[in-house]
Design brief:
This protein is an alpha/beta fold. It has eleven helices and 16 strands.
């Protein structure tokens, strides 16, 4: 199963919005074949592996329950039954309610042995976005930020390029390539004019959807982001159809108008998950917007690059949060990973309270 999990990782940059899945087939303690899901719409991991061997009487190791419904490809559970496999070891149940449990049930009704739960936790780490989208109707949200050693993101005059090293910036392009979508704000586009695409990588990947949160539809139509090919979605509260159509024509972006409300940002994320099939969303925006997301419980993971520089107390903070009066009100984070990237440190953290 460990090998199947490693195989699943090969689809990290290409199989979105489908889950990353790996498959290993063995018989008499010998490896017969292996496969992984590479591209959405093409064959799944099981079919990839079955095509390479005679699997009659074999054992199959899968990181995710085989699909049992007709989608863009035929049900994988039927292929396993037709191949005459002896048993299937599955790391985790598919969180998709269309599939969940039915693939296992179909295998068992066909007389195929099923074992469930081997390396379940490791398998879940493969697909945090797919799991969250299927279980909560929201994407898994990573907020990427960069700061100085004293927790500052930019000078008081706004100058921020570049706090971190070239190696850290290259690492960000890898994160972008692994994301389903990258989200920023109109304010960040006006201030920094980012491209928000992945660049300079030596492997195949699928460019993320680029998303701008722009309540008043004020992003400059000449911004760099509109000159780069790829899907761009702008979420706005603006509801003037003529203005929206004119803006869409001049930028090539898709405009989604959602009514203003207290839950407007949650509705944006819900639309991304349910209508655009966004699994993993990376936010690259300013300290105020990211602070709002954190306080509203819309961030799952913080990725912070810390550079060994000092910017001083007048510089802008990492996050602008509501003032607290006691330490009991402090928001706690769990550090899941720390590594050096160039001269910088990269912290990966999740919110615990």
């Amino acid at each position: 199963m460990s090998q199947a999990i490693q195989l699943a990782q090969r689809g990290r940059y290409t199989c979105d919005p489908n889950p990353r899945v790996g498959c290993v087939i063995t018989k008499d303690n010998q490896l017969l074949a292996e496969g992984w899901h590479a591209v959405a719409g093409e064959v799944h991991a099981e079919i990839n592996a079955l095509a390479k061997c005679n699997a009659a009487g074999a054992s199959v190791y899968l990181t995710l329950e085989p699909c049992s419904h007709e989608g863009r490809t035929p049900p994988c559970v039927n292929a396993l039954i037709d191949a005459g496999v002896n048993d299937v070891v599955i790391a985790m149940v598919d969180p998709n309610p269309v599939v969940s449990g039915s693939g296992i049930e179909t295998l068992e009704k066909a007389g195929i042995g099923v074992r469930l739960g081997l390396l379940d936790a490791e398998a879940r780490k493969l697909n945090p976005g797919f799991i969250k989208r299927m279980t909560s109707g929201l994407p898994y949200v990573r907020c990427k930020m960069a700061m100085s050693l004293d927790g500052r993101t930019a000078l008081a005059n706004g100058e921020s390029q570049w706090i971190t090293s070239e190696q850290a910036r290259h690492d960000v392009h890898r994160l972008r390539a692994a994301s389903s979508a990258i989200l920023t704000t109109a304010e960040s586009v006006i201030k920094d004019d980012p491209a928000l695409n992945a660049r300079g990588l030596d492997f195949e990947f699928k460019q993320a959807v680029r998303v701008i949160v722009d309540r008043q539809l004020k992003t400059p139509t000449q911004a760099k982001i509109f000159s780069i090919p790829g899907q761009i979605i702008i979420y706005t509260e603006h509801n003037n159809a003529e203005r929206i159509n004119t803006y869409a024509s001049s930028t090539g972006a898709e405009i989604v108008a959602l009514p203003g409300s207290e839950s407007w940002l949650s509705n944006v994320f819900s639309h991304l998950a349910n209508e655009i099939q966004i699994n993993e969303l990376m936010v690259e925006a300013g300290s105020r917007f990211c602070g709002v997301l954190l306080e509203r419980g819309l961030i799952d993971e913080l990725i912070v690059y810390m550079a060994p520089v000092l910017l001083g107390h007048d510089a802008n903070p990492l996050l602008k949060l509501t003032k607290i009066e006691t330490l009991n009100e402090a928001r706690h984070l769990q550090i899941n990973d720390v590594r050096q990237v160039g001269k910088d440190l990269r912290f990966t953290m999740i919110l615990t309270s």
